[in-house]
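User: Please predict the structure of the protein below. I'd like the answer in structure-token form so I can feed it into my own downstream comparison script.

Assistant: Understood. Taking the following sequence of 69 residues as input:
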Amino acid sequence: MRDHIEELLRAVGYIEAHLDGPFRLAETAREAGMSAFHFSRVFASVTGEPASEYARKRRLTRAADRLLS
């Protein structure tokens, strides 16, 4: 598997910029320049979790930060 770090960083940036809306795998994969199937496999392989779970955890973290401030 070739190194996909740059593509994944673009996808993570897209997820971060769209945390207020629903997670859309197809749009996130498009941002990374991959098919949804390939993106799902690569993201989970590199991070150890699905992209949707990453987005969910980031939303929870942001909500907790807002509650603390």
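That's the full token string. The CA atoms of residues 22 and 63 lie 15 Å apart.
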